[in-house]
Here is the input.
Amino acid sequence: MGEQNGDSVVATESGRVRGGGDDRVRHFRGIPYAAAPINEKRWAAPQPVQSWTGVREATNPGPVCVQPEASDMPSGVPQSEDCLTLDVTVPTGPGENRPVMVWLPGGGFITGAGSIYDPTRLARTGDIVVVTVNYRLGVYGFFAHPELGDSNFGLQDQMAALRWVRANIAHFGGDPAQVTLAGASAGAMSACTLMTAPEARNLFQRAIVQSGSCRTSHPAGALGEGVGAISTWQPLATIQGAAQALAGHLSCADLACLRALPAETLLPYTAMFPLVAYETPLVPREPSNAFAAGQASNIALLRGNTFDEHAEFTVSAYPEPITADRYSAILKTAFGNAADHVESSYPVDEFSSPTAAASRVFSDRDWICGSWRSGRDHAERAPTYVYTFTDSTAPTPGGNPVPALVQPATVHGSEVYFLFDFHDGPQLTSAQRSLAEQLAGYWSRFIRTGDPNGDSAPTWPRLDASDLALSLNPDTIEPVNMRTTHHCDLWDA
Here is the structure.
């Protein structure tokens, strides 16, 4: 890696790039890892980048992929279909063969961008190379059509980024044989899905799955009255049916017509496509079944959840305070004849409100215990470490206070602020900064060795028959039993 007047010039397979930075890290931003997915390349596998001559400036991020407004996306960020770029962050100073983390952002598969994450602290603390990825979203990334015979173009983008890392990261001082694929929410679901994808074998050697798993699903009513049961993973034919309905609505008889539409014409319909297709070349089998059958990559896995994953979803689904009678009815809708058994395990008078009780039920059932079960399946074949993040004062992704009806709560995605910085993002307290240092240490040691333990940190037990996870809190870091804390025996049954 060459130094020129404080800048860094690195040769990639496609051409040279110049980054910038400070005395802590160098950033190389907006590097294309695939060709622009426009015109005939819309809804196609990512294609190779056209090489360039001279030195390409890589000091600014590329545009984010086209998406609707989101509370955690900075205002005024340029958007484009030509968005298949990544950012590389490298510690300053001599070093080679550093471990690499490839970060996949969340956003429900319809919003998000790797370029809004600043991994300076993580890269510097762990002496690792961090790659953050933009990938196609919503109608642009997870559309399907009978003429295509495929979907999951956003996942295919992630694969292209991993191939770029394998081919180029050594030029940035990274080790292409020591890659950890990591992500939160939809990024976590992407990572665990790629663990089951035969084409992804050997592209990464470890995985970190935060606030999402391949068993995440929601029973009827969990996302609102009248909303049926839903899983992120659906047969290809289901998504093709939604695409055909959209094509009819847009008066397009064939794929050529749809590809000719302006990106802004499709944007209002992007929320119709937040689902990952299986029975496809990339995802041949439903990922949860692949994990249960031992067909996921046998690699070290770090995974976990916030303590109250479903708190904000519950308030969004039921904005009016839930009464005790309504709580019973919601459980009946979700669990049928098992509702009384669920309610006896989660009696409403043990919570600050019936809304909080519903939040606890769906946090445990939909998120935490599914992740634990998937972790148990994986732990039979490879080292697995599970956490729960329990800081109820942590920032929320949208920047809004935790709704009063579910306080105190540690909401979905809040641990991400302890690993990354964000432009105009919230400031952590001194106690939270101390916890952030602990998280950076655990994560970077896992990225380096496959084991988060070391450096005199509280011991993180490997998941085994004891069912112990690590509770992460500014006040204390200690093991916690998942079966007893989250009623995982109930949900496992």
Notes: Residues 34 and 49 are 5 Å apart (CA to CA). The first strand starts at residue 2 and ends at 4. The chain has a mean pLDDT of 95. The two ends are 54 Å apart (CA to CA).
